Amino acid sequence: HGHHGNAILSEVPFKFWHNVDVSTFNYSQRGFLHGITATDVHLICVHFGLFENERRQQASKLVNYVKEKVPHQAPVILAGDFNDWRKSIDKLLSKELGLNEAHRQVNKKIASTYPSFRPILAMDRIYQRGFQVRNCSVMRNREWRRLSDHCAMMAELRLRH
Question: pTM here?
Fold first, then answer.
């Protein structure tokens, strides 16, 4: 029915989680989900809006939240649908939070993930801090296309000690 939800699956139990509403319109619920695992890894899943101004406001709220709630040296994985085909949020997250986009680290460019039948726009991302990116790929086969209008992404990360 057009609902926009967030979910984080982890084999490591969560010791904390918080759902943050960053909606700017009544008709479009948007937000991000923040979880902290038992190993003190911060996982954040986002789904930002379709309009540039809306995304800019949501990204600003995300940056302020992370600066306030996540220790500067803590390992972070931030992923989801940023709807940021112009890549303006990308620069903000790198500069303000010290995050690196996983696909770009491995493949030298941000992945195109939308639409799933012929991806041309870079909408979905996996950012990280405190990890070594071993691999990052886009799931483009028919089975994945049946699940969403966006291609899924997968990254293999190794925690730095």
Answer: 0.94
